[in-house]
Structures
1.
Amino acid sequence: MTPAPLAFIYDRCTSRGLRARSELDMRLTGCHAYVDRMGWVLAGHWLDLGDHAMGTHRPQLGNLLDAMRAEAGRREVLCLIHTWGRLATDDTHRQVLQRRIVEAGGWTITSFGETDRHGARVAPVARRL
């Protein structure tokens, strides 16, 4: 039996205020619920904060990609984001980051089921208890 995909959750947040943190927590909660609903295995979550959330240098995304690359040969890996804007609001920048995920052996999906996986039909995985 093929192991369930390994989900790597990514998000970013530029603000340090209480409202921004609350919104971030809600997005992460939604992503965790999506992982559970799909029957995937959670690898963890990586967050770029402050200036790192806006620029092209994203240290935590780089760490996520390193971890994803290490697992990609053993099982299916994916990067789960709440919405496409969580990677980048600029389409060109977002596509560059999505390409980095593909190069690490994975694919990207939002917590609303939108994916860049070619020919994808994303369906829940039956869990073995």
Note: The mean pLDDT is 90.
2.
Amino acid sequence: MMTTSRNNDPLEPAGPDWDVVTVPARQGLEAVDILRRGAGDAVGPVLHDGGCGTLGFLVPPGTAAAWDVPGSVCTETDGRGICLMPDRPAEDSDWLVPPGEADLATDPAVLREALGQAQRMIEAADSCR
């Protein structure tokens, strides 16, 4: 699972506040495809961990307080631990959808719907084996 760390270094400025929804990579990749096929720019920046086991969607701050989607975790970052520079995200991760190619954050309601649809697609595909 991808984690974000709080950087308490007073010399490093805090970035904008956001929360991060972390999901298994397979479900996250399906959700990114669903969001990209939707109307407008529905997907914000997305991180993947070094081992490509999870994806992290940047969502607006406060999302973690009400996030209850099974199989995912929403973590507060308080603007620390992730840098919105295309070449310098959180430690041991990289951008799947870099900042600058996407809105600042993915709408949590839209993400919740896409993750549900992605899970249903995965279950359907797995049942066909």
Note: The helical segments are 25-37, 108-127.
3.
Amino acid sequence: MDNHPTSWAPRRNLVVVAWGLTALLLVGTVADAFFGDGKGAVLTGLATLAVGAFAGHWTLVRPRLAADEHGLQTRTLSGTHRLPWTGTTVRLRSTRRLGHDGVTLELERDEQLFIFGQTDLGEDPRDVLDVLTELRARSTGA
């Protein structure tokens, strides 16, 4: 067996930083509510909710993508979705916006479409595609 990962999730340090920032923003919101003006508390409260939502999402959906000899498994807030190798399309999509190239990994089966970026996977989607292609070839005997 090779040393390639078979599951991918947001980097742990990113999740920890997001939770830490959420805690700091919460302290700032409470302090602003008691000692500052109400408008500042509303703004920091909204920032707390936004960063906390990202941190919560990244915590709950670990791992975002996993692969084995039977197929792929993705986790979303609505649950775990199993995608067998047969009938599942795996591809990269590249876009260019504001001078920045973005690459996403797309998984498609029937009416389901899952899109993963580097933040979701914790590594470059191109590297993940290479591992998935190798694993799929070994699993299907192609």
Note: The first strand starts at residue 7 and ends at 8.
4.
Amino acid sequence: MDIDVRGPRFGAALTTAVLAVALVTGSFWLLAWQTLAFALGAAGGVGRSPYGWLFRKAVRPRIGPPTEFESPEPPRFAQAVGLVFAGVGLVGFGLGPTWLGLAATGAALAAAFLNAAFGYCLGCEMYLLVRRVTVRAE
């Protein structure tokens, strides 16, 4: 079943805010929260993430029914990519070196910002590239 394209973009906006604050403050716990959000989105799809739930319950009823849909697999893959970067960031902030936490969090922030501001999902594009490569290899 396809998903409302506005949901992942809303989630990316919240992710951008959370990662920006985590990056500026170096907050391990805030990054841990975002890592959990990525894990839930990767495991159950973006609709199962806390931001997907918030979009479904508080935002979508106020903005009307969707007019555009997308396949759920690319955003779910993007959540898994975000999970990897956030996990590496947690290692950097928790165990060191700090620059690793800053770099990984910054990379995740850049990707989330691109999606939130411009609707360009790097993780989704990676998913499509991987699909093209694996289909050709078969």
Note: The first strand starts at residue 3 and ends at 4.
